[in-house]
């Protein structure tokens, strides 16, 4: 049987930071193992990597690293892979009849590039126009955080945030802009420490030039207190 070696193609996808799916690529058996079982397996893999690099794992500073990294992967930086951690996003009737867009800006984004497993750090700006329902402000932050806590590409993260809020609010009128630094660009490869990446997803009324411009103008407002 002939096996096609597509390693070069996969490397190109990773180096060019190309996403291949609008949904996070997960296997059907992704949640068969418990978190504790995953931690036990991952810490042995981390131990093997460190040992292969020649590190002395009997050193007091290093001996606990495999377990710390495994727990961090499962419980923290990749915790958003677990659907059980999706934030509940209760909506409320817009009884005060607020008819303009609502913007939650400068939401902190901490994510991880799925190509090199290096940090993505930036800000998200999210807006919606109510069609009769509103959502708690902190829920918008939590939705961003949930989808950020997984191996990601920024384009997918932006789309996932918009799609989730459209579903929660039952409206197409949702927008998201993310401006972030990718350490896979800043700390390796080209090592450009000044560049950042901006992605945007506009739904419903935000596809109209005037509404989109209003949203972008709100983002520019100085909100230092």
TrEMBL record:
<keyword id="KW-0862">Zinc</keyword>
<feature type="domain" description="GTP cyclohydrolase I">
    <location>
        <begin position="42"/>
        <end position="219"/>
    </location>
</feature>
<dbReference type="Pfam" id="PF01227">
    <property type="entry name" value="GTP_cyclohydroI"/>
</dbReference>
<dbReference type="InterPro" id="IPR018234">
    <property type="entry name" value="GTP_CycHdrlase_I_CS"/>
</dbReference>
<dbReference type="InterPro" id="IPR043134">
    <property type="entry name" value="GTP-CH-I_N"/>
</dbReference>
<protein>
    <recommendedName>
        <fullName>GTP cyclohydrolase 1</fullName>
        <ecNumber>3.5.4.16</ecNumber>
    </recommendedName>
</protein>
<comment type="pathway">
    <text>Cofactor biosynthesis; 7,8-dihydroneopterin triphosphate biosynthesis; 7,8-dihydroneopterin triphosphate from GTP: step 1/1.</text>
</comment>
<comment type="similarity">
    <text>Belongs to the GTP cyclohydrolase I family.</text>
</comment>
<dbReference type="GO" id="GO:0003934">
    <property type="term" value="F:GTP cyclohydrolase I activity"/>
</dbReference>
<dbReference type="InterPro" id="IPR020602">
    <property type="entry name" value="GTP_CycHdrlase_I_dom"/>
</dbReference>
<keyword id="KW-0378">Hydrolase</keyword>
<keyword id="KW-0547">Nucleotide-binding</keyword>
<dbReference type="InterPro" id="IPR001474">
    <property type="entry name" value="GTP_CycHdrlase_I"/>
</dbReference>
<keyword id="KW-0479">Metal-binding</keyword>
<keyword id="KW-0342">GTP-binding</keyword>
<feature type="binding site">
    <location>
        <position position="184"/>
    </location>
    <ligand>
        <name>Zn(2+)</name>
    </ligand>
</feature>
<keyword id="KW-0554">One-carbon metabolism</keyword>
<feature type="binding site">
    <location>
        <position position="116"/>
    </location>
    <ligand>
        <name>Zn(2+)</name>
    </ligand>
</feature>
<dbReference type="InterPro" id="IPR043133">
    <property type="entry name" value="GTP-CH-I_C/QueF"/>
</dbReference>
<comment type="subunit">
    <text>Homopolymer.</text>
</comment>
<feature type="binding site">
    <location>
        <position position="113"/>
    </location>
    <ligand>
        <name>Zn(2+)</name>
    </ligand>
</feature>
